[in-house]
Amino acid sequence: MTHALSRRGALGLAIASGLAAGSALAATDDDLRATIRSFLDAYAAKNIDALMAMLDPQGILVIGTDAAEVISTPAAARTLLEADFQLWEQSAFRDFRSFAVRREGRGASIFFEVPWSRLNPGEPDFLLRFAQFWVRRHDGWKLAQSLNAVATQGQSAAEIAAHMAPH
């Protein structure tokens, strides 16, 4: 699998991301937790209509890992999801980690990591990182903004600097 392919799938995950954070989540955040988990489940099931229903009707912004992946309309989100879902037969989300939520009024900022797998034998999971903003509307939580990244290994500033020639 190419690195570009893993990045391409990750943008759709930004749109379709969610989490089940277990003990890291306060009881008052159970409704948000369930909504985001439903979003992930819909993504794994390739349920575009369910995903589209969870986008904020007052606006969406999704920034993916590729420079061209800046999504700001429902039509662009649908096109992206349709393309993403051609890249694998099945997928699954693992347990979530590094979860943090902050609520202000009707909005909630969420930062988390989640391993994601395309369920291909011998293929490793991808660790995805998300920063999202969800807003509470009359009909439930809606995704308004999402930024994602595919985590790398051996690419931290400290690791790169350790391998650089002295100046």
Structure in words:
The chain is 31% helix and 29% strand. It is of the alpha+beta class and 167 residues long. The chain has one domain (3-152): Nuclear Transport Factor 2, Chain: A. Strands 1, 2, 3, 4, 5, 6 and 7 form a seven-stranded mixed β-sheet that branches. The protein is globular, with a radius of gyration of 16 Å. 30% of the residues are buried. Mean pLDDT is 83; it is low at 1-8 and 15-27.
Throw out a few tags for this protein.
167 residues; single chain; disordered N terminus; 7-stranded mixed sheet; Nuclear Transport Factor 2, Chain: A; globular; 5 helices; 7 strands; alpha+beta
CATH topology tier name: Nuclear Transport Factor 2, Chain: A
Number of strands: 7
Q: N-to-C SSE series?
A: HHHEEHEEEEEH
Give the end-to-end Cα distance, rounded to a whole number of Å: 36 Å
CATH architecture level-2 label: Roll
Largest sheet: 7 strands, mixed
Report Rg.
16 Å
